[in-house]
Amino acid sequence: MTRHFPVIVIGGGHAGVEAAWAAANILRDHASVALVTQNPRTIGVMSCNPAIGGLAKGQMVREIDALNGLMGLAADATGIQFKVLNTSKGAAVHAPRAQCDKHAYARTVSAMIAARPEIRVIAGTVERLLVERGLVRGVQVATPDAGLITLGAASVVLTTGTFMRGLMHAGERRTPGGRFGEPPAHTIADALRALGFELGRLKTGTPPRLQRHTIRWDALEPQLGDDPPRPFSDLSAAGSPALGPTGAVPALARFPALPQVDCRITATSPRIHELIRANLHRAPMYSGQIESVGPRYCPSLEDKVVRFAQRDAHHVYLEPESLDDDWIYANGISTSLPPDVQDQIVRSLPGCENARILRYGYAVEYDMVRPHQITPSGQTRPVRGLFLAGQINGTSGYEEAAAQGLVAGLNAARAALGLPEHVLGRDEAYAGVLMDDLCTKTPVEPYRMFTSRAEHRLLLRADNAADRLTPLAERLGLLGDALYAPLRRGLFAHRRAQLEALNTAIDNARVGSRPLAELMRRPDFTIDDLVRLVGPWRGEATPPGCGGGRPTREGWRLDVLETVAADRYYALYLRRAMTELRRTRELEHRTIPDAIDYTLFPSLRSEARAALARFRPRTLGQAARLEGITPADVTLLSVLVSQWRRRHGQEPADTVPSGR
Ligand SMILES: Cc1cc2nc3c(=O)[nH]c(=O)nc-3n(C[C@H](O)[C@H](O)[C@H](O)COP(=O)(O)OP(=O)(O)OC[C@H]3O[C@@H](n4cnc5c(N)ncnc54)[C@H](O)[C@@H]3O)c2cc1C
């Protein structure tokens, strides 16, 4: 071994950087985390859409921020258009989104990682995992300078993204690669197979990029961002010197850090759809050249034309990718049709008659690990100490990758310290829903998060992410000792004080003969009404270490007003949700010993036995969510598990550890 690290993270994509960041927050020692990646210059690169957040994804970024992750800060530092989506609907589905300057985003993430003394970046491709008696011991890395080296580790987080046996398709042309201009990672797939992992293969795609000055930009309908913009991170609005210009995220000296831009909208037409139909035999998805499955919710243009044949137009959003160049991302026309067909499609879009394509759209096929082989902490079942996160688990999207990275990095560090794993509940975070879904379902297509996947979505709102998760981050040690840790603590304490004062004021207030709380359940009740009725905040104006710039009404923080307004508006539903939660929590806390051999339970139906043996659920709650398991199976399983425990002299155990 040339060197030993408590945690090694493989891959500098969105999962990898978040894993390294979280592990560094926990471990805190100099060079305790190695981030091994093929090309350190591509750390934090946005492979596809230069945007962070959106429906359900924005909620996850807020959660990542509440757990002291890096994605929210990086997006705030580099956003060129911010928009909260779904504001015409209830607060439960409000979703922040930012279009970022893709160069600035990667630069910022890279700088944030480089500024952490706990993280050592190593250039190289991991070819083998070193495993002894089912326990990971380290990795073998092919490096550009020192050839093959061996690094020892207590825990390893593997985040190969779209690179594992990546193969790119553009029309009939096939090129090995994980994304444009970057080679695939080959041997790691064989290494995983040799360790007994079941692999799958998925596909994703990206649209052509256009040159802005060749588009009739001003002739197209604009799409504007919010004014004023709202950041992801509670810290960004703080105007604190702890962030910039010499602080932890210098780009965040103020918010918004970059000039804001607008986007444009155009649309496909029956003529374009006809053109696609006439060329379907040249589309790798339809010619049989690609056999793996792509994301259903984010289909290629050829997919849309075939699947939604009744529609004669689809929106295309033209989104600037950077302030430093004139590349435009053509959102909505992801395609792997050959270049000559892409030219014709683009030039048939209104406003794009003379548009020049700077990079043609393409699809990429890659290997993934079927995620029923991990636990909700990201740890693999076949190899202890090995964690998987991101696209390798069959997900799609930067936010899904980052959320898994954070969970895996946290748990890899805990494992290195000899601490038990920490699992996020489905009622605590979208990240908990994500990890649980991955373990209880085998995605047959790339998995992305939707609000509809969360049964407790009234609880999992963007506005209350800090209330749900920052105290947990503190308990687990995730707040770390970075420059801005005191700022986060101060901001949160200030928020708690305002929440308490505001709730007390509401509980004591009446409007005429009616309690204010009752009035707040009306859909036409506004935040301005609330401020008028409770009067101004009389406590400390800003938390310690914060400058001005945080949006307030009569001294009340807007984020506090929004949370209280949502809690009061949903009060009756939330009460019902809590009752339901208490009922289901009982199952979530009843663990199933990993050592159980289901073949010894002949009284279970064979389909149930097969599902339990394949997924090996950790709790009765998880078992209940498996495909092929009925409520009757769960009742019987509960009895069988109790009998098994008695026979083996085991006491029932809880899953949720108490933290650090
Ligand atoms: C063409 C294309 C289209 C996409 N389209 C969409 C889309 O429409 N919607 C969407 O949500 N998402 C899309 N994505 C997916 C999005 O890019 C990913 O979800 C996200 O980047 C996943 O993050 P990750 O960290 O798992 O992997 P990545 O961001 O891919 O990062 C993986 C990292 O690991 C490194 N690496 C891999 N193997 C090794 C190894 N053996 N040793 C060392 N380093 C290694 C790579 O160099 C890279 O730095 C697309 C991706 C591509 C390439």
How far the N terminus sits from the C terminus, by CA atoms, comes to 30 Å
User: Bound small molecules, which ones?
Assistant: flavin-adenine dinucleotide
Shape: globular
Count of alpha/pi helices:
20
Mean pLDDT: 92
Main β sheet profile: 7 strands, mixed
- Ranges where pLDDT stays below 50 over 5 or more residues in a row are 654-660
Indicate the proportion of strand residues: 15-25%
Question: What does the model show?
Answer:
Helices cover 34% and strands 19% of the residues. The protein is of the alpha+beta class. Helix 1 runs parallel beside helix 10, helix 2 packs parallel to helix 12 (465-476) and helix 13 packs across helix 16 (558-569). It is globular, with a radius of gyration of 25 Å. The two termini are 30 Å apart. Flavin-adenine dinucleotide is lined by residues 10-16, 36-38, 42, 47-48, 125-126, 159-163, 178-179, 185, 188, 204-206, 298, 334, 364, 390-391, 396-398, 401.
Keywords summarizing the entry:
about 650 residues; alpha+beta; 7-stranded mixed sheet; 6-stranded antiparallel sheet; 24 strands; about 35% helix; globular; disordered C terminus; binds flavin-adenine dinucleotide
Furnish the topology, listing elements before pairings.
Layout: E1 3-10, H1 14-27, E2 33-37, E3 51-53, H2 57-66, H3 71-78, E4 79-85, E5 95-100, H4 102-114, E6 119-123, E7 125-132, E8 135-143, E9 147-158, E10 167-170, E11 173-176, H5 187-194, E12 199-206, E13 209-211, E14 221-223, E15 263-267, H6 270-278, H7 284-287, H8 301-307, E16 315-320, E17 327-331, H9 339-347, E18 357-359, E19 362-369, E20 386-388, H10 398-416, H11 430-440, H12 465-476, H13 485-508, E21 510-511, E22 514-515, H14 516-519, H15 527-534, E23 552-553, E24 556-557, H16 558-569, H17 571-588, H18 606-615, H19 620-624, H20 631-647
Bound molecules: flavin-adenine dinucleotide.
